Amino acid sequence: MATIDEELAGLERDIRQLKIEYDMYFGGGRKRPPTEIEWRIETVVKRYSERGGELKYTQRFRFNNLSQTYAKYKEVFRKRLAQREEGKIERHFGAAAKAIEAERARKQAEAESAAAKEASKAFRVTCSAPEKETDKVEKLYEAFVSAKQEAGEQMGKMTRSAFNEFVRKKTKDLQTQKNCREVEYVVETVDGQVKLKALVKS
Fold first, then answer.
1. What is the DSSP string of 28-41?
2. What is the pTM of this model?
3. How far is CA 123 from the centre of its chain?
4. Cβ of 5: how many Cβ atoms within 10 Å?
5. Which residue, among 31, 33, 28, has the nearest Cα to 104 in the 3D structure?
6. Distance between CA atoms of 95 and 109, rounded to whole angstroms?
7. How far apart are the first and last CA of the chain?
8. What distance in Å separates the CA atoms of residue 143 and residue 161, rounded to the nearest whole number?
């Protein structure tokens, strides 16, 4: 039986594949919508929506991002299907035209999927006294570790205690230097690399 992490990885792959196959369908590269993949995604999304309490924080964070991405794609697909039924989409005939359309759709889907995947991974938390806000620092650490794992990066010497000390010191330094009360930490993936940013808040 697959683990939760394995099922979430499968869900992510299916969402990417669904986007590619829908674009192929709208481009004339396939005859029918990819309903089988869509059914598989719906099943997993429904199951974990009902069993959210079983997920760890990082798993729930990842699942929410995936389900939001799927919901956005689903709305786009619905609108394009409606346009197609109304005859508003041009149809391309001939094997060569279909092949060109399918390849164009595949490349566009990969680019959009990569952009959506990276954009959905930003995690934010605001701290004013990290030594007292252990829950916030814990969630920040888990988001950082999760992002590193998905990007295939090593944590190196950044242990949990070293991370906690870094956040405590960074917050105190910025509060002193910038005369601010709060510091916002952002974990995001940019061009395949995980970044941890510290932003001054008022």
1. TS-SS--HHHHHHH
2. 0.45
3. 11
4. 13
5. 28
6. 21
7. 49
8. 15
Structure tokens at 132: 């007292």
140: nearest Cα among 184, 178, 102: 184
Tell me the two tokens of residue 136.
Answer: 């916030």
DSSP letter assigned to residue 52: G
d(CA 102, CA 183): 47
What's the pLDDT score for residue 93? 47
Domain boundaries, the chain: 4-119, 123-201
Q: Are 69 and 120 in contact (CB under 8 A)?
A: yes
Angle at 117 between CA 108 and CA 198, to 5 degrees: 135
Q: Which band of pLDDT confidence, cut at 50, 70 and 90, is reported for residue 121?
A: low
Q: Count CB atoms within 10 A of the CB of residue 196.
A: 19
pLDDT digits (tens, 9 = 90+) for 5-53: 999 999 999 999 999 988 888 888 878 888 899 999 999 999 888 887 7
